[in-house]
Structures are given as C-alpha cells and as structure tokens.
C-alpha cells in the first residue's frame, strides 16, 4: 500500500507530518480519527480531523492535502445523497 506524508493542523497532532495510507485514486481518506487513551478505565477520547486542500496552484487545483482539526468531532452522515432531492 502507498502512503503520503500529510500535515496535521490543530488539536493534539498540531504541526506533525504523519504518513497516511492513500486509496486507489491516490487520495487520503476524508476523515482521520485519532483515539487518545486515558490512564483510568474510561474509554479513549477520539479526535477527528477533516481533509482539506493543502496548497492550491494557479489553476485552482489542489497539490496535496492536509488535515484540519474538527473540535466538534461529528462524523458525516452515512446515508445516500440523491442528486434530485432538495437539501433540507
């Protein structure tokens, strides 16, 4: 599997560059979850990062990706998005 060094902005991984596995299209996943364990018996805290374009070139196309911290940590809906329905 191929990986790409990706910058993380904000949250507990602020400023770190980590290798992230990329898919068949050469893009990293849209969200990246980082579980942080606790010392006691509580379940780990999960921090969520969202993929955004890293650098935008002259033509408006992204050349690389980075992850920005999402403090709310809500995962996107997994339902189908039909193109002919109006947004609510």
Give an overview of the whole structure.
The protein has 88 residues and is an all-beta fold. It is built from no helices and 5 strands. It has strands spanning 3-9, 17-21, 31-36, 45-53, 65-70.
Compute the average pLDDT.
84
Number of helices: 0
Q: What letter string, H or E per element, gives the SSE order? A: EEEEE
Low-confidence stretches: none
Sheet-strand content, in percent, reads 35-45%
- Strand order, main sheet: write it out: 2-1-5-4-3
Oligomer: single chain
| Radius of gyration based on Cα positions | 16 Å
Major sheet size, sense and barrel closure:
5 strands, mixed
Q: Roughly how many Å apart are the termini?
A: 39 Å
Query: Based on helices, strands and strand pairing, what is the structural class?
Result: mainly beta
Based on CA inertia axes, which overall geometry fits? globular
- Overall helicity: under 10%
Topology, number of strands: 5
Question: Nutshell version of this structure?
Answer:
The protein is an all-beta fold. Helix content is 0%, strand content 38%.
SSE topology:
Layout: E1 3-9, E2 17-21, E3 31-36, E4 45-53, E5 65-70
